[in-house]
Amino acid sequence: MKRTLMAATFALVAVSLLAFVGCQTKEVTSAKVYIQQDDWDKAIEQLQAAVKLYPNDPEAHYLLGEGYAVKGDYDGMNREFQASLAISPKFEQQIRASREKYWVRAFNSGVNKFNAHAYDAAAQDFLTATQIDPSRPEAYVNGATAYVVLDSLNRAIEVAERGLQRCPNDPKLLNLAGDLYLRAERYGDAITTLEKAVAADPNNANAVANLARAYHSAGKGDLALETYRKALESDPENTDLIFNMALLHFSAKRYDQAAECFAKVIEKNPDDYEANWRLAVTYLVVADSLNKPVAERLINGEDVPEQEIKKVQEAYGKAIPYLEKCTQLRPDDPDLWLYLGQAYVRSGNPAKGEEAFKREKELRGEGQNRNK
Questions:
Q1: Neighbouring C-beta atoms of residue 141, cutoff 10 Å
Q2: pTM of the model
Q3: Of 82, 230, 315, 319, which sits most exposed with the smallest number of CB within 10 A?
Q4: Cβ-based burial of 112 (10 A; exposed 0-12, middle 13-18, buried ≥19)
């Protein structure tokens, strides 16, 4: 599936960087002149002197933060912005607008690079955005996603965990972190994180589905089944959820329920190979369980009622349409033709079974070897 990311928007706040308000030191005055000349190097020198001489000047700290931002030193920017706000809220509006401007610039640059498939560069831009404003979860989510695409799972987890330290209750970040833990087979961490994600947003079907997968992977089948049911209440057409529920039923030997779920997937996606194969296997498992005692009795020379034999044949017959579909989807797989031939024979159709076995041998090259 092709992934694209959405850009952020920046609401321009009308604030003046160089407003002269009240008395100011000569260092700040000189810095403003240099700023008007776009000479940030000299402006920074003056502002560094100003905060050293007058550490309680909120404007000097604010302007120095702006200078550091221009130079790409966002740690320095945040340090000076925080120093300014600790002294006075006077420049809070300007600081908020400036931080937003630089965050949006870095974030949107990351989005553009991600959508152009430059994932490594995109990840770096998203990390820069988290540095500019560590309190916003979006850049952590996108940065971790970029690392997933780069097949760097551990790095993705690091970014997500750093985001959760700052934004511990963000539903999207919690869901992403839970999914990453699932990929890393850290099922305990996945369950803990995804339970928080569902609690934060109970209507998030994806988070509920991930939680069900986590329960399933951790061997907590009952919890997984209940969670899948809740997820399907919110998203009843989600074939991935239905398929996963079918797998859960199958692993618990609830073959009727498994078959019902696989059939629902096929109804919506007739060419879904996995669903067709799994449904065929489900019917074969049931048929084998019926056939075993019948075969043993026949081997022992016992009489077996015709209705019992017919029941076994019908059970194998149920698998045939889905095995046939699998051979259409993957016609060069000899194993499929072998299973199909066995199903034909055991359903009472040996002629078709021979045809399937012949095709299986051709694909394995056995017929060619005999003719040499």
A1: 22
A2: 0.72
A3: 82
A4: middle
